[in-house]
Amino acid sequence: MNKITTATKKQCIETLRRIAEAEPEKIITRNYFRNNSNLAESAWTKHFGTFQEFKNLANITPSRHARALERAVAKHASADLYRELNGEKRNWSAAYKKPSDARFQTVLVGSDIHDIECDPFWRKLFIETAKRVQPETVVLNGDIFDLPEFGKYGVDPREWDVVGRVQWVHKFLEDLRNAAPNAEIIFIEGNHEHRLLRHLAEATPAMKAILSDLHGFTVPKLLGLDKYEINYVAPADLAVFTVADAKAEVRRNFHILHGFLVAHHFPEGDKFGLPGWNGHHHSHQVQTKYSPIYGSYEWHQLGSGHKREASYCNGEKWSNGFLLAHVDIIAQRAQMEYIDTTHDHVVIGGKWYQRANNSAS
Known about the structure:
The protein is α/β, with parallel strands linked by helices. It is built from 11 helices and 14 strands. α5 (64-90) packs across α8 and α6 packs parallel to α7 (162-179).
């Protein structure tokens, strides 16, 4: 076939549209057009430059603006799933309030437990302390789950044990509730839980496997909220589009106890000008601060419950521990008692504990 080398812009577009309309299900590629039209490439390239632009102007494909609009609509449509889940998780922030009118109260705080990665010695002492002290409030300060299957560490799928990890958390919550049956338990969403729930909204293949194995668990069932009477503090929006946005949202997850005591998963909480604590960094630090309202007070960054042997980072630099905050709710003062469980001997309330085979005796 002799190819036409000279054609007007209108003639080129008419030719392309005629071929496209003859094969409405066909994706018209440059090679397909070359083989099925009487136009030489030089006839249309001088008008349009690229074949993509040729198709755009012939309305064979959406314009760049239209494609951008389609992408934006698709992005926000996918976020609708997250927004539905937002409503579900936010219904649990005060579902199981257990108010106490006692002036002097105790808050037991544990952070960064990371399910099966938890140090058994830490776990034993935390549950034992809950049983001995009978705190009015227990705060689980974020990252109670680890679930690296949904994380950034590239876990080999053949080593996944998502069901085992969920069951570990439920057994921990069961033991904690049995140890302190009257305590209000507050679970603050950490970055690991936020990531877990995003996967739940998306129904990723891994999450579908979890829900199948756990027989259709919903958010409260997955997190054990109903079964163990737990308040879940999670104002962070799941409908975010970038990693930076996700990090910023998780930093909104905090709780203020008794009107003056801040429980925050991230260190940003220390900027509130109130006593309290954060987790996330797996290392104990304490700062003495001053407020003209509260005077001198302490801010604690907690050690973790995560064992210090970690293949994916320098876990030996971490520390293990948890916190007892003894609170005068009328004077709005808190005496912080940090329990360091990093080493082989720990004293809690005058009682000695010794690490033995990664447990306590």
